[in-house]
Specification:
The protein is mainly alpha-helical. It is 64% helix and 10% strand. It contains eight helices and three strands; from the N terminus they run βββαααααααα. The chain has a three-stranded antiparallel β-sheet with strand order 1-2-3. β1 and β2 form a beta hairpin. The longest helix has 26 residues.
Length: 168
């Protein structure tokens, strides 16, 4: 298949072939592979370009989610699968992220605990349930909650009880 034209589109680059077939790939794929008009590509090479483009879209989506706030591995996995990415590709990418330190369930759980205790004034049992729901490993949760200050939880319970019965 010979490339007859390469056109920039809103969401990427459209590559039109001499047999009137076309593919849409990320701009970075075209640049990284040095694609130009009149290049002859095999169907295997075309599939490789599409796979590279899909991987870049997946990585961009994951970074976008992590850029908004911390997430657990489970949360990121579920959100990316809901966006239509294949589970195998998502898990592969997240393993890479864990290896590079971009994603850490223990750090996420610690930050989540601190926020919920200090800002939202929530009890430890509710935090435990929320962390389980977010897919955090039971051992991480138990280790984290064993180091948490239980007096904060007691103060929170007292404040909530006073609020319920309107004591100043």
């Amino acid at each position: 298949m010979i490339i007859s034209s390469i056109r920039k589109r809103r969401s990427g680059v459209e590559i039109l072939f001499d047999d009137n077939s076309k593919i849409l790939v990320d701009y970075r794929v075209v640049v990284d592979n040095g694609l130009r008009k009149n290049d002859d590509l095999t169907s295997e090479q075309v599939n490789n370009l599409l796979a590279q483009s899909e991987k870049l879209k997946l990585k961009d989506s994951a970074f976008r989610l992590l850029g908004m706030r911390h997430h657990s591995q489970y949360e990121i996995t579920q959100k990316l699968i809901r966006k239509g990415f294949e589970r195998q590709n998502v898990e592969s990418l997240l393993n890479e992220f864990v290896g590079k330190g971009f994603l850490n369930d223990a750090e996420f759980a610690k930050a989540y605990l601190n926020e919920r205790l200090n800002k939202k004034r929530v009890g430890l049992n509710k935090i435990r349930a929320e962390l389980i729901k977010k897919g955090i490993n039971q051992k991480i949760i138990e280790d984290l909650l064993s180091t948490a200050d239980s007096s904060i939880s007691e103060e929170t319970a007292l404040e909530l009880a006073k609020k319920k019965i309107d004591i100043p």
